[in-house]
């Protein structure tokens, strides 16, 4: 749920800086176009968004989980 929250809530900022909306903004850009997708895996947590998000997640899940950090895969369609 932590990975999903990072893309859906304003969490990544720290005081006193006025930031922390980055992943939410990335998710918005991905989901507003039909040929995009994103998936993120961190430990056992994962999230995917957009038309090709499930495909990205399949690729990420094929990589052995070494518990060494976070990996994100994006597909960006260009027309």
Describe the structure.
By secondary structure, the chain is an alpha+beta fold. It contains 3 helices and 3 strands. It has helices spanning 2-8, 22-31, 53-62, and strands spanning 36-42, 45-49, 70-76. A 3-stranded antiparallel beta sheet has the order 2-1-3, sandwiched between helices. The radius of gyration is 13 Å and the shape is flat. The mean pLDDT is 83.
Q: Which structural class is indicated by helix and strand composition?
A: alpha+beta
Elements, N to C (H/E): HHEEHE
Distance between the termini: 34 Å
Number of strands: 3
Strand order of the largest sheet: 2-1-3
Shape: flat
Quick tags:
3 helices; single chain; alpha+beta; three-stranded antiparallel sheet; 79 residues
Give the secondary structure arrangement, pairings included.
Layout: H1 2-8, H2 22-31, E1 36-42, E2 45-49, H3 53-62, E3 70-76
Antiparallel strand pairs: 1-2, 1-3
Task: Give a summary of the structure in a few sentences.
The chain has 79 residues and is α+β, with helices and mostly antiparallel strands. The protein is 34% helix and 24% strand.
């Amino acid at each position: 749920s932590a990975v999903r929250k990072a893309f859906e809530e304003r969490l990544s900022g720290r005081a006193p800086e006025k930031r922390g909306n980055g992943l939410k903004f990335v998710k918005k850009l991905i989901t507003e176009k039909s040929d995009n997708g994103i998936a993120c895996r961190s430990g056992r947590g994962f999230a995917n968004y957009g038309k090709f998000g499930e495909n990205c997640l399949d690729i990420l899940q094929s990589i052995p989980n070494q518990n060494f950090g976070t990996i994100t895969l994006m597909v960006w369609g260009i027309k």
